[in-house]
What we know:
Elements: H1 10-17, H2 30-41, E1 48-52, H3 60-67, E2 71-77, H4 80-93, E3 100-106, E4 119-125, H5 134-142, E5 145-159, H6 161-167, H7 193-202, E6 206-219, H8 222-231, H9 235-239, H10 246-258, E7 267-279
Parallel strand pairs: 1-2, 1-4, 2-3, 4-5
Antiparallel strand pairs: 5-7, 6-7
Helix pairs in contact: 6-10
Amino acid sequence: MTDPPAPGNPVADLFDAVADTYDRVGVEFMGPIARGLVDALDPRPGERALDVGCGRGAVLFPLADAVAPGGRVTAIDLAPKMVAATAADLAAAGLDPDHVAVEVRVGDAMAPDVEPRSVDLVASSLVLFFLPDPASALASWRGLLVDGGRVGVSTFGAHSDAWHAVDGVFTSYLPADLPDPRNMGPESPFGSDAGVERLLADAGFADVRTITWTLPLRFADADQWYRWSWSVGQRRMWLLVPEADRPAVRARAEEALEATRDEHGRIGFDQEIRYTLARR
């Protein structure tokens, strides 16, 4: 087992802070994205899979269903509280280990502690852009796959102008170099399908291809958007706003949200999701 990350790791700290509410405020976001990735990877019964950056199990659970009977899923995440919460979810689910073997543990996506050439597929949903060296991570994952093994990653494509407007209320509080995985410029490998495909090709993968899908992200009301924004990675934007300023920022965000109402009266955004797939 990989040792827990040292205290102060900003990514681990962020996701430890959201572990209890992550993908648990009634908004369909992580789950649909993860299920799309699992479907694109086409897991088969009996296969051995690695879920890198498992969070609260959005990929893990459908992946376990897909490789059963006889399969195995190893899931890792850098945030110990995420791992503990997901392990509790697994225990509550009561999966039969004779039907499918599932393990969740603390682990570093840069170099997963998994035997070389021991897995049939690697899945990683909304993780790659958080890593300090995505190219090195991909090369590491390639070494874990059997010949012909598959890898699939999900990243963000374009998102609607309306979302830009809501996020704009945070701009004056954010450092200029703060990366936003939903808003990567053309200079970033995550700014285009071709850029992400190059990352995988340069790591030695073959048959690299991209599938895109648009997620209609909708909220019951502005309060649900607010709770959701604290429960995901966007929390770090709120933390950069002084506490005294947060009510005014929230009010401006809610005003911008009003402009997103669709013909059914719902508020929200459309987010393009990119699935990049390849083989060893």
